[in-house]
Amino acid sequence: MRRSFSYFNRSDNLIEMAKAKLDILVIGGGITGAGIALDAASRGLRVGLVEKQDFCAGTSSRSTKLIHGGLRYLKQGDVKLVREVGQERAILYRNAPHIVIPERMLLPLVKRGTYGKFGTSIGLWVYDILAGVKKEERRRMLTSEETERIEGALRKDILKGGGLYIEYRTDDARLNIEVLKTASSYGALCANYTEATQFLYKDNKIIGCKVKDIINNSSFEIHARKIINATGPWVDQLRKKGNCEHKKRLHLTKGVHLVVPYQRFPLSQAIYFDVYDGRMIFAIPRDDITYIGTTDTDYNGVIENPKVTKEDVHYLLDAVNYMFPQIKLTEKDIASSWAGLRPLIHEEGKSTSEISRKDEIFHSISGLISIAGGKLTGYRKMAERVVDLVIEEFKKEDDYKYKPCYTDKIVLSGGDFSLPNEIPKFIENIYESAKSIGINKKQIASIVSKYGTNTTKIIDKANQLFAEVKTHQLEFLLLVAELQYTVEEEMVTNLSDFFSRRTGRIFFERPNLEKTYLLLSEEMKKLYNWNESQKNYYVGQFENELFAAVNFD
Ligand code: FAD
Q1: Mutational test site, ligand 1, from 231, 281, 286, max ligand atoms within 8 Å of CB
Q2: 364: which of 168, 282, 327, 368 fits an S-S bond (Cβ 3.0–4.6 Å)?
């Protein structure tokens, strides 16, 4: 059954999940859980998914936001993985071209750096072949003069040359939401702010879960043939709850990103550069900002909302100032930041950066399946492996003809352009239909970069609002239209869902946001029927987030 992914369906979804036994209950609404929900629902299984925070509030909105081609795996000699991630990248570009965008990446080669000239040339060439990189996107090696010409602010005394190659940029949270919306269109029942609190057993086997609806403060029992623990950094906590511990355990490492205004760190393309301690970090320009990351440090603190510390900040600022001596970034330049936790599988004796990024599936005696590790880039393949495993078990119990995985053919919500290069024409058409309300092409392009073909729904709402209230500023009406769309079709429940994970404004458009969030809270009050104290609660919660993004301990 096709369902809309609306806030107004959220409670009904929970009631439906509780009403009859599911085939699969997925715990965790990050990219791993979202991918599993889509894979299973598209094969005709009855699927439910519960997420204790907002969808993607864990690691899946806190990454470097790249669909990697796997260069790092090549250095580790893992040829098979390079080929797989290269193929996955091509599939994602085809199925979600509005949020998976080719990005030119500069790799400066420096004295005593990670990559040598000859090795890089061969390595990038092999990478192009293995990852199936298109001819026009293949690597180009540069002399030190050419590298300098491209990025004049790079330090010159250690520069030996450079390599230009293609990475793909995404918005992790938007990708996560588009996958969930697509899963829901195949019938998956999803609810955010719903925590799996306890497992239910029969004959020592897990047969369901007790869940708590945090918004309505109520509890349900959900029964399923199979429960999948896709809780990323929380995987071990949940395994502990179900006495499903395994000899392997997670090793959490924290990665921090800082955002600075583009004018303070102007780059002509993204760059992946050496740091004085032997690590490498990214700096990625995006509209009016540049973001820098990441750190990689052991983490043992509270998993929800990891904090950026002064030490993290100074590490990244020093790294930029070392490689770009004229830039001279200081803490005052920071416009926003985020920290995320990598749910890696512990390997004895290995340092944080040496631990493999591969995913693993743990199968407990009680029947719980847990999946951890991996990358955003490989979510589709991870999902396929898990659902294949579940189906193998189901086949022992029945003779139903289960479909094979076909998510490589499923276009994600908003991605239904016949070709990625059709996007400029799509923007032009919308402009022609909406220019009478004063909208410009830049505004449309910005909406398309988040919502793809669903932009038409937002523009329709804006047209309607404009006809009703001619007095408001267009920019604000557009924001209200966007809010209405994300409530009705992306299950937004509060200010933070909207400004952090549906639109990324807290990271990338902070100056505009300061002017609008209070106005928008009034619109939300009307939409959700909040009383004054409920509104103030959500405003307070969001202001804490705003504060934490620029204040560090
Ligand atoms: P999460 O996104 O953390 O999702 C798990 C969810 O489970 C959470 O939302 C949590 O709230 C929920 N949950 C926990 N307990 C419960 C419960 N009891 N009931 C209900 N819900 C529960 N990968 C790339 O491909 N490209 C990159 O550029 C990249 N950069 C990265 C940079 C950093 C700094 C980090 C940390 C990771 C990066 N990764 C990258 C890796 C990628 O982000 C992760 O592999 C991926 O996001 C993990 O997703 P997940 O769904 O497994 O976990």
Answers
A1: 231
A2: 368
